[in-house]
């Protein structure tokens, strides 16, 4: 065709556009130094969790292991965080505990966010119809039960292990996303660009997933980053009471609980796992703030 | 500062920090307001009018902006060099700003009375003598803005008022205590033409009554023509032309002013001119020389190399264009 | 401009229920019995302030709202219902450009995706052809092809509106409703867009229903104009007549208050009547003629009887008692 105009879309142009987009996002993210700190903490935790057998001095202490000669030793150059009553290195066990914590967070979010998101979109799109009422009332019911109690109730009915504790937390996590997306979806539904699509005859599928959904995602991503910390905390609360990862596999909450009865003498058994929980949550919170800054679209 | 001079901006530059560098928005702004004068500032979106006004009151975002050069003299003192108590005095007694969107300028969770009193209390505590109580001053301010039922209004919340009334409340806040200078940023733009008319008339009256000076920011040359004594035309961070209002419309000189005037739909009909080709410049990499030259139908070779000065063509009429040099 | 009637509105009413008062429902009478026709190839202008009902009229025509009563005919077909019930062929043929391009374009889509929707739905274009057609559309509104990979927040207001226009053109319509298409834009950009809209009309034989509050703009755009107040049409005439010989007091009040930029234009305005008061809410329409509380020429009958539309001269309609056969004497006496 003679007069065909070709818009430049070759690999070079595309990679330039990609680099520019990444650059802009990084600029917005890194404006706040604390967000960068959060990112560093999170990357460190993930790295250590993945390479736990190689970055810890005593990887075998995360399994069935006893060494009563070295039980209850305070922090030293040999055992940086000291040992517990079985002689296991607390530092190594904490790093291995990261694994369970992160796996739980990932699985819970992967399982709870999509259904929560979908229900919120549907309820928002069908606002003020029976679909809205049914979905939101069920959501309200789940939300009205104190989260920890709900998780405990579910987890105690099922056998105590990591998988079941994940199921318990997933079941109480999805409603938060429904609530979040419901508000956004129902207001976006009345925006002119959605009306324009409807007036031109777009299908409901297109409207929900191509017009409304992309505008709901930013807060969802931010919340997911922040939620990792919270899921880990709930997970730790569950393992604190014995529901969750079973011994000898280490779990942060369980380590805190084990050490509690030896306070204040063997203080390192409780304090370091607790600090680890704090640091992880802090890291994800700061990261979440940064993600929010990065994704916000400036108005005007 | 001349005897009659109230505000004098000299060679003001303002930059905003963004990804990739700085947006060099203001590129040497010159702007004067005399006592008792009504000055119009006309320019399109993005030309820097609001930035200039924010610079005067020093309400630019601290972290993300910088003023590499320039002076803003108010009653003889440079605002940019003032300390916080002097600045406070300027903001509470010297200059008042009436923002464009009255709904956004009023706090929805406080009553009109609360917000008015706040403004008045600050002015009272900064030393100027006053004879009335805060409440009396508030009622008087509302009366001056032609708002009826003042006592009841004090207890109302912004949401209970119409757009026109909210704008009047903002105006009453600005004139509740004596001021030297009012800055009105596109007053009435979000309201209907007939209401806007009333608001502008009100401002006019108040300005005359109290011999306050006023800077009227607008994108409408028609509004500026009716409501001001002198008009500045602004483009891309520079003042391109200034003249007495009647003179500007009788004898517009700068190519941008001409382009702007031709774009305005005329009541006589016949279609509108094609507008001005091109876009406003990218402040990250602004054009060299005269910032208008890429879009100028009368550009000369020197326009892309050097920035023109503000040349005087008589009777206070100045043009920033090499066509009128010397 | 032909004599073929493309749009006919008959006794259209659109009321919104906004609550209850003493057991009776309270209605916001946004559009309250209007009649007008739009002919093929013309630009019909609907002008008025906020609360006048002009936008509601446009939205009811395009199918955003269902009429409370009355009829809308498009090319002879009864279309007095909301868009969901309208055939796809109608949606293809009738398009709308909204006022605020910032909210009428999805900020999370690329321009290609935005333009793709009508192309896919109405012209059944797919795959490789989409890109080519998108480029052609962008060229029509003088935007470079690279823009199809950009998102609305990355481009300026005027350019966004050009995209909105391109979207309206994508389905190859014959009728476009333009709701204040340039009100949110600067005057030099407005000039560019209005000229483009007018060029496209000539080029493609389009019919426009053009809505704005800017009387000066309307003068340069419309062939015929109707002015609305509180849901009713006060005056309807050809553009020349409307501006040269405005009859309704509201029309004259509005024309008198426009800011203009030259003494020559000042001469063209009717004698200055200072506008008083604010527009009442369409929930509380005054009895009789809705404009009477603000009218400097009112008589007793104005607060009692709703005026009817009278054809004062061929094609020039006014609804004001001064021009009705029945009541005109009231004014002759004084």
Name the quaternary structure: heterotrimer
Number of strands of chain C: 12
Low-confidence stretches of chain A: none
Class of secondary structure makeup of chain C: alpha/beta
Could you tell me how far the N terminus lies from the C terminus of chain C, measured between alpha carbons in angstroms? Answer: 43 Å
| Helix and strand sequence of chain C | EEEHEEHEHHHHEHEHEEHHHEEH
| Total helical segments of chain C | 12
Global geometry of chain C:
globular
Strand content of chain A: under 5%
- β-sheet strand percentage of chain C: 15-25%
CATH homology-level superfamily of chain A: MetI-like
Structure description:
The complex is a heterotrimer of chains A (300), B (326) and C (334). Chain A has twelve helices and no strands. Chain A is mostly helical. The two termini of chain A are 41 Å apart. With 326 residues, chain B is of the alpha/beta class. Chain B has a single domain (5-286, 309-324), classed as 3-Layer(aba) Sandwich (Rossmann fold), CATH 3.40.50. Chain B is built from eleven helices and twelve strands. Chain B has helices spanning 49-57, 84-94, 102-105, 112-125, 134-144, 150-154, 163-175, 193-210, 221-227, 245-250, 255-263, and strands at 5-18, 21-34, 38-42, 65-74, 77-78, 95-98, 181-185, 213-218, 230-235, 238-244, 311-312, 318-319. In chain B, the strands form two sheets. Chain B has an eight-stranded mixed β-sheet, with helices on both faces. In chain B, strands 2-1-4-5 form a four-stranded antiparallel β-sheet, with helices on one face. The longest helix of chain B is centred in the middle third of the chain and has 18 residues, at 193-210. Chain C is globular, with a radius of gyration of 21 Å. The mean pLDDT of chain C is 91. Chain C has helices at 54-62, 88-93, 101-104, 111-122, 128-140, 157-170, 187-204, 215-219, 239-244, 249-256, 263-268, 329-333, and strands at 5-21, 24-39, 43-47, 69-74, 77-78, 94-97, 175-179, 207-212, 224-229, 232-238, 310-313, 316-318. In chain C, helix 4 (111-122) packs parallel to helix 6. Chain C has 334 residues and is α/β, with parallel strands linked by helices. Chains in contact: A-B, A-C, B-C. Chains B and C meet through helix 8, helix 9 and helix 11 of B and helix 7, helix 8, helix 9 and helix 11 of C.
């Amino acid at each position: 065709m003679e007069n065909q105009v070709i818009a430049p879309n070759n690999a070079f142009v595309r990679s330039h556009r990609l680099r520019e987009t990444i650059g802009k996002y990084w600029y917005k993210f890194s404006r706040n130094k604390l967000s960068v700190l959060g990112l560093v903490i999170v990357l460190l935790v993930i790295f250590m969790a993945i390479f736990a057998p190689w970055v810890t001095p005593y990887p075998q202490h995360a399994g069935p292991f006893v060494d009563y000669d070295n039980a209850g030793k305070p922090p030293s150059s040999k055992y940086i965080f000291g040992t517990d009553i079985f002689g296991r290195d607390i530092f190594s066990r904490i790093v291995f505990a990261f694994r369970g914590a992160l796996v739980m967070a990932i699985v819970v979010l992967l399982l709870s966010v999509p259904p929560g998101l979908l229900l919120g979109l549907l309820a928002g799109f069908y606002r003020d119809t029976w679909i809205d009422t049914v979905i939101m009332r069920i959501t309200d019911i789940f939300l009205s039960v104190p989260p920890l109690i709900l998780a405990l109730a579910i987890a105690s009915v099922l056998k105590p292990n990591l998988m079941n504790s994940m199921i318990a937390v997933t079941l109480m996590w999805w409603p938060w996303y429904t609530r979040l997306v419901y508000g956004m979806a129902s207001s976006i539904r009345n925006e002119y660009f959605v009306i324009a699509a409807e007036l031109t005859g777009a299908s409901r599928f297109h409207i929900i997933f191509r017009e409304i959904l992309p505008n709901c995602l930013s807060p969802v991503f931010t919340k997911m980053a922040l939620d990792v910390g919270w899921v880990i905390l709930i997970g730790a609360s569950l393992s604190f009471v014995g529901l969750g990862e079973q011994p000898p596999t280490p779990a942060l909450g369980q380590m805190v609980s084990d050490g509690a009865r030896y306070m204040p003498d063997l203080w390192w058994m409780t304090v370091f796992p607790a600090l680890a929980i704090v640091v992880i949550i802090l890291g994800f919170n700061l990261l979440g703030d940064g993600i929010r800054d990065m994704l916000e679209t400036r108005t005007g | 500062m001349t005897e009659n001079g109230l505000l004098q901006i000299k060679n003001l530059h303002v930059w905003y920090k963004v990804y990739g560098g700085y947006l060099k928005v203001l590129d040497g702004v010159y702007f004067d307001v005399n006592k008792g004068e009504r000055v119009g500032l006309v320019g399109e979106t993005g030309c820097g009018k609001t930035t200039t006004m924010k610079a005067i009151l020093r309400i630019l975002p601290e972290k993300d902006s910088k003023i590499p050069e320039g002076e803003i003299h108010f009653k003889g003192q440079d605002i940019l060099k003032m300390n916080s108590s002097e600045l406070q005095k300027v903001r509470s007694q010297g200059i008042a700003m009436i923002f464009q969107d009255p709904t956004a300028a009023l706090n929805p969770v406080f009553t009109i009375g609360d917000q008015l009193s706040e403004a008045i209390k600050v002015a009272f505590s900064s030393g100027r003598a006053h004879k009335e109580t805060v409440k009396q001053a508030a009622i008087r301010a509302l009366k001056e803005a032609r708002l009826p039922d003042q006592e009841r209004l004090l207890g109302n919340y912004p949401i209970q008022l119409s757009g026109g009334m909210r704008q009047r409340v903002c105006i009453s806040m600005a004139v509740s205590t004596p001021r030297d200078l009012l800055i009105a940023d596109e007053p009435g733009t979000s309201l209907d033409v007939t209401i806007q008319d009333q608001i502008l008339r009100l401002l006019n009256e108040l300005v005359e009554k109290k011999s306050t000076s006023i800077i009227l920011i607008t994108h409408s040359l028609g509004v500026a023509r009716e409501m001001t004594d002198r008009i500045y035309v602004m483009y891309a961070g520079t003042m391109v032309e200034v003249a007495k209002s009647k003179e500007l419309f009788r004898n517009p000189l700068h190519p941008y002013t001409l382009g702007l005037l031709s774009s305005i739909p005329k009541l006589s009909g016949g279609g509108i001119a094609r507008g001005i080709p091109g876009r406003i410049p990218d402040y990250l990499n602004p054009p060299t020389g005269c910032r208008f030259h890429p879009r100028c139908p009368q550009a000369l070779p020197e326009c892309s190399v050097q920035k023109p000065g503000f040349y005087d063509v008589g009777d206070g009429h100045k043009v920033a264009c090499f066509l009128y040099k010397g | 401009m032909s004599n073929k009637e493309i749009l006919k509105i008959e006794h259209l009413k659109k009321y919104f229920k906004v609550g209850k008062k003493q057991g009776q429902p309270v209605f916001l009478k946004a559009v309250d019995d209007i009649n007008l026709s739009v002919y093929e190839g013309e630009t019909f202008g609907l002008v008025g302030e906020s609360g006048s009902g002009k936008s509601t009229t446009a939205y009811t025509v395009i199918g955003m709202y269902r009429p409370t009563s009355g009829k809308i005919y498009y090319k002879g077909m009864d279309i007095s219902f909301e868009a969901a019930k309208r055939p796809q062929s109608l949606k293809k043929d009738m398009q709308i450009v909204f006022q605020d391009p910032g909210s009428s374009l999805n900020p999370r889509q690329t321009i290609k995706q935005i333009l793709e929707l009508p192309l896919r739905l109405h012209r059944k274009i797919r795959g490789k052809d989409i890109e080519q057609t998108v480029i052609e559309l962008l060229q029509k509104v003088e935007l470079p092809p690279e823009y199809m990979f950009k998102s609305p927040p990355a481009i300026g207001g005027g350019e966004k509106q050009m995209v909105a226009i391109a979207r309206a053109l994508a389905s190859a319509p014959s009728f476009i409703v333009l709701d204040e298409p340039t009100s949110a834009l600067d005057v030099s950009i407005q000039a560019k867009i209005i000229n483009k809209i007018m060029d496209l009309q000539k080029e493609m034989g389009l019919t426009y229903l053009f809505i704005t509050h800017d009387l000066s703009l309307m003068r340069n755009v419309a062939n015929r104009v109707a002015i609305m107040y509180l849901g009713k049409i006060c005056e309807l005439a050809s553009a020349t007549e409307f501006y040269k010989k405005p009859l309704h007091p509201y029309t004259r009040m509005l024309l008198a208050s426009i800011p203009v930029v030259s003494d020559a234009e000042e001469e063209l305005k009717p004698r200055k009547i200072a506008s008083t008061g604010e527009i009442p809410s369409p929930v509380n329409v005054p009895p009789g003629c809705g404009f009477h509380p603000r009218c400097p020429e009112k008589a007793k009958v104005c607060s009692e009887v709703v005026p009817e539309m009278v054809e004062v001269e061929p094609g020039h309609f006014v609804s004001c008692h001064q021009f009705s056969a029945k009541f005109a004497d009231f004014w002759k006496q004084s």
